Amino acid sequence: MELTVLSKKVVVFDYGFGNIRSAERALARVGAEVEITRDFDKAMNADGLLVPGVGAFAACMQGLRAARGDWVVDRRLSGGRPVLGICVGMQILFARGIEHGVAAEGLDEWPGTVEPLQADVVPHMGWNTVDAPADSELFAGLDADARFYFVHSYAVHDWALESHNPLIAAPKVTWSTHGKPFVAAVENGALWATQFHPEKSGDAGAQLLTNWIGTL
């Protein structure tokens, strides 16, 4: 697979949670200039910011706040500057997460609750397809049967945010199914996110990252 060479600066935000080296390699593969850092100014000034995440929702939020990542995300989005969240880095963008019956506050960029997967087998681990909107920019150039790599026990099952202003594009929501359907990706202005790991999803993931960087 030939990938378009891109020359955009992307910061992978290092707040102690996430497969940052895998993300770095995947972004470099598609031609981005990548830096792993928690430096506030570098994160603010990059063309794109990638927020990874693995582990527990509450712990990720605690780590993000300790590194001022909540400020970085908020300030970037206030200025219309692109942010991509991956796995728990997507989950913490929602209003709250519930793990083991305990609720924790998220960044509240989107309404909704991250809750346990409603499936016979948990975690959801391995390759799965997604159902993306026809006009998705994130999944442009990818076949409908493209598969992505998931590792998670929690997800958002209900999408609550819609746009009633004809001048503002409604968020584009992509779904997948493991037991009950769940949100697999979101495109909402400058804020995009995936529940799966594009950095572990081979050529399909590389095309998706190429698509994101192409919008920076």
UniProtKB/TrEMBL annotation:
Subcellular compartments: Cytoplasm
Enzyme active site: C87 (nucleophile), H197, E199
GO cellular component: a single term: cytoplasm
Database matches in Gene3D superfamilies: 3.40.50.880
Keywords: Amino-acid biosynthesis, Cytoplasm, Glutamine amidotransferase, Histidine biosynthesis, Hydrolase, Lyase
Superkingdom, natural source: Bacteria
EC number: 4.3.2.10, 3.5.1.2
Stored Pfam families: GATase (PF00117)
Primary location recorded for the protein, binned into one broad class: cytoplasm
InterPro entries from the UniProt entry: Class_I_gatase-like, GATASE, Imidazole-glycPsynth_HisH
Catalytic activity: 5-[(5-phospho-1-deoxy-D-ribulos-1-ylimino)methylamino]-1-(5-phospho-beta-D-ribosyl)imidazole-4-carboxamide + L-glutamine = D-erythro-1-(imidazol-4-yl)glycerol 3-phosphate + 5-amino-1-(5-phospho-beta-D-ribosyl)imidazole-4-carboxamide + L-glutamate + H(+); L-glutamine + H2O = L-glutamate + NH4(+)
Single GO BP term: L-histidine biosynthetic process
Glutamine amidotransferase domain residues: 11-211
Molecular function via GO: glutaminase activity; imidazoleglycerol-phosphate synthase activity; lyase activity
Associated pathway: Amino-acid biosynthesis; L-histidine biosynthesis; L-histidine from 5-phospho-alpha-D-ribose 1-diphosphate: step 5/9
HAMAP family per UniProt: HisH (MF_00278)
Function: IGPS catalyzes the conversion of PRFAR and glutamine to IGP, AICAR and glutamate. The HisH subunit catalyzes the hydrolysis of glutamine to glutamate and ammonia as part of the synthesis of IGP and AICAR. The resulting ammonia molecule is channeled to the active site of HisF.
Subunit structure comment from the entry: Heterodimer of HisH and HisF.
UniProt-recorded name of the protein: Imidazole glycerol phosphate synthase subunit HisH
